[in-house]
Amino acid sequence: xxxxxxxxxxxxxxxxxxxxxxxxxxxxxxxxxxxxxxxxxxxxxxxxxxxxxxxxxxxxxxxxxxxxxxxxxxxxxxxxxxxxxxxxxxxxxxxxxxxxxxxxxxxxxxxxxxxxxxxxxxxxxxxxxxxxxxxxxxxxxxxxxxxxxxxxxxxxxxxxxxxxxxxxxxxxxxxxxxxxxxxxxxxxxxxxxxxxxxxxxxxxxxxxxxxxxxxxxxxxxxxxxxxxxxxxxxxxxxxxxxxxxxxxxxxxxxxxxxxxxxxxxxxxxxxxxxxxxxxxxxxxxxxxxxxxxxxxxxxxxxxxxxxxxxxxxxxxxxxxxxxxxxxxxxxxxxxxxxxxxxxxxxxxxxxxxxxxxxxxxxxxxxxxxxxx
Length: 372
Fold this sequence. Notes:
Elements: E1 15-17, E2 20-22, E3 29-33, H1 41-54, E4 58-62, H2 66-78, E5 83-86, H3 91-99, E6 104-106, H4 109-112, H5 115-127, E7 132-137, H6 143-149, H7 154-170, E8 176-181, H8 185-196, E9 204-205, H9 213-229, E10 235-236, H10 244-257, E11 265-269, H11 280-290, E12 298-303, H12 309-315, E13 318-321, E14 327-331, E15 334-339, H13 344-371
Parallel strand pairs: 3-4, 3-10, 4-5, 5-6, 6-7, 7-8, 9-10, 11-12, 12-13
Antiparallel strand pairs: 1-2, 13-14, 14-15
Helix pairs in contact: 1-2, 1-10, 2-3, 3-5, 7-8, 8-9, 9-10, 11-13
């Protein structure tokens, strides 16, 4: 079902994180963070490449020490994705990774220390065209704000962010983005809505420490979905206690469901019931696993019976309606052929890949004609 997203995005200043535009009219970027030991260069490079294959636009790497900073330099040489260095307290680490080719510094200027240290970091960022990400987290609010508010609140998150922003403003540095994360959905949403009205810089969305794969996906989908529906958000990170690759997949699924960005197949599948004429759940599990490498945008409906099947198939690019003795396959909304249960998954994979190849060939032909 082709329908443009009704969401009107908040206008924000555009910055560049490496070669990825963030803010303005740029697509919402999906990012994750490595959970390997940064000094283990081989493992970290491997994870970044896995995230890239999954579709990540940006990857954040924790750099807690000078040894990690030197390792970061080696990592930078081996990967092409834009890298954000996550740094706390030690300004010398920020200066070093700036020399080593970092694409963004995730720091809180107020945590760096004396003004001369803050000035040095900002100067290095300015000289290297390196943006800064201010990252406020409910779990690490300044002690003065903890005393003032008693506990983390949306207003406390915003006040913390504005303190750091004021420091950058005093140094006339405007190439930054901001995140205000909490594990509590309503607090996070409230904080982002408030700061969105106060600054022009892009906002990086996330529900921090959201939980495991299932619970974290639900919590992130609700919180990020509320904000994205408001038009708020220029980058997103789904924080899961799981393989970081899953964060990228869930992030794209969230954007795909809101028609904000598309990557891979959008499956429309029934939950199955006793009316089904084939095993819908097993078929879907197999197709998703087999077609993970497909990045093309395609709507595919897999419906187990004739009640909703024909209607869904008619508005999808490809569709399958369960039937007896054979299932009916649709292409471009029209019945195309019948498929037997015995070879159903193999046939569906083949037909989907053929459609992807046909579209690619058509696109290449159009490009070739335009070049001539």
